[in-house]
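Might you be able to review the protein record set out just below?
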Amino acid sequence: MSTALVKLVQDDAGKVTGLIAQDVNDEHYIKINASKGVIITAGGYATNTKMMQALQPQTLAMKVNFRIGSVCDGSGIKA
C-alpha cells in the first residue's frame, strides 16, 4: 500500500497522537492512532521545485529536474 500524509493528528496539548493518510491508488483516507508515538520517515524534497528554490537554489542550479520514480516532495518536512 502506498500512502500520502494528509495531516498529523494532535491532542489539545499539541502532542501528535496519530495521522491521516490517503491511499494513492484508490484515494480513500486512512486514520492511524498511535498510543506510544509517531515516527515520520518521509524522505526529502528533491521533487518539490519551490522548496528546492527556497532552501537549496545552488543544488537546483546544478541538477536536471528528474522526477521519475521519486516521491520526495517535502510533505513530511512540512508536516
Summary: The chain is about 20% helix and 25% strand.
